[in-house]
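Hey, weird one. I pasted the Glycosyltransferase sequence into the form twice and got a warning about non-standard characters only the second time. First submission, copied straight from the form history:
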Amino acid sequence: MADSRPHPLAVLIVAYRSADKLERCIESVERYLPELEVHVWDNSGPESSDVRRLASRMTNAHWYLNGENIGFAAAVNNLAAVVSGRDFLLLNPDAELVGPLSLTRAAIGERGTAAAAPMIWADEGGRGPSKVLSRTHQPWDVAHRRRTVFNALGEMAVAAERLRGTWLSNLYWSQPGDVEGYLTGACLAIRREAWDSLGPFDCEFFLYGEEADWQTRAIAAGWRVRLENESGVRHSAQGTVAGDTMASTRSSDLVHASIALQIEYRYGVRTAELYIAGIYGIDGAKRALRRGDLNRSPSDVVIIVDGPKSLSASQLVSRASALAREGHAVTVVSLRRLGALPRELPPTIRLLRRPWWWPRTWPGDGSTALVTGTTKRERAAARLFRFRRRNLRIESVEPAGHPDGLNPEVTVPNLDLESI
């Protein structure tokens, strides 16, 4: 017989700067779920101290001030290990509870349910929660249909809300109960039994998509994913990077890379690469329609790496960081999954995933220098990248230990134009 009693919960929060939003988040937990332990992992990075200052004031929470940004998936996995044996509630630091989550907690107390979430609500000028966030958003938009290439591209071409319920959107037309795709992780309760059975989040996802991937595995294994009809959380998308142009750009690029990885897992790498090329084309068309031209990118150096595990990856990452420190605008293009690259590259460097056969960074890019390794894929991508770029300067980097290996600290002017 199903056990519908709420299980003991721990609240897990992965922080990224924005201590003011984090403080309101923790206060909302203390207001509506005062009996629960709160565990906070800080991914803000060593250069940011506002979360550490907050930790010295809010001593009731358990703080893990790691200092480095290890990624959302890795941070959640670490916190989940700390609260071993308990169910847990993932809560974004820019989210605030607006109720005690009675239905959500009861849902994961039922056998067979892997994850559950409440609906997202809006606070309209102190009048309390309303059922409609805007003309296009709905409170059940925390629930998503199964991800496909078509609805991923439809989302990019036209707002997903305008196409909801069609094959070009992964949003539901009406409020679902059981979810066929996934629930967003802004406020997500996870049953420990399912977590232990399925394993932790996949750390190949650095910031987005890890909860979608985990729930996809759960549904495939026969577990239920449920949206509960209750007031749950008030959440502002990208609240922790609002006002930070570099962080917002990195965040947006990681969203596309994450969707590509989800598609790769489900449909294969070639389909994922078609998605990446598709969003490039859609972005170019939208820019042309909006501005009348494609504009030129601010990047003056592009570094092509054949994935994070290629032989020359560490040298190319070192070169990218050195060039960025010298004041160059640098873009790193990975021809495969991103892996650990988001952890290794500072947000001042743009990081993109592109197929080798579509190596352009974004519409209208005006890069003047290219640095790449010497694998077949890197060389092929470099040849395509230099097409119609007569003044492009090129440098190749041999893998570490190669007799012709170049010093990673060599700067852009020392380019070997004949090496590609």
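That's the output from the first submission. The warning seems to come from a hidden character in my clipboard, not from the data itself. Residues 12 and 90 are 5 Å apart (CA to CA).
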